[in-house]
Design goal:
CATH architecture: Roll
Strand content: over 45%
Distance between the termini: 24 Å
Radius of gyration: 12 Å
Helix content: 10-25%
CATH class: Mainly Beta
CATH topology: SH3 type barrels
Largest sheet: 6 strands, antiparallel
Shape: globular
Number of helices: 1
Length: 91
């Protein structure tokens, strides 16, 4: 994985985030245009923010390294949905 790749981050609480890898250092991983992965009766989707009381569609999110279980490349279908959700363009 490289900076600017779209990645999936799983936290120790079981929360999944999808976003563009902006940086990774001793403080954690920073994602740009992060989206929280949610599930419903139709399958998976994205929440409008990353926290119930946070802003809608934040520009970035720093996830502390102690909270990360793993980081992986994002499935191509999920990456396409993420791009549509963050850009407003439907491909």
């Amino acid at each position: 994985m490289d900076i600017k790749d779209v990645v999936t981050v799983l936290t120790s609480l079981g929360t999944e985030y999808v976003g563009r890898l902006q940086s990774m250092d001793k403080n954690g991983i920073t994602l740009s245009n992060p989206l929280l992965v949610t599930t419903n009766e139709k399958g998976i989707g994205f929440a409008n923010g990353v926290a119930m009381t946070g802003t809608t569609h934040p520009k970035s999110l720093l996830i502390n390294l102690t909270q990360i279980v793993f980081v992986t490349e994002t499935n191509t279908m999920v990456e396409k949905a993420w791009q549509e959700s963050t850009s407003g363009l439907v491909t």
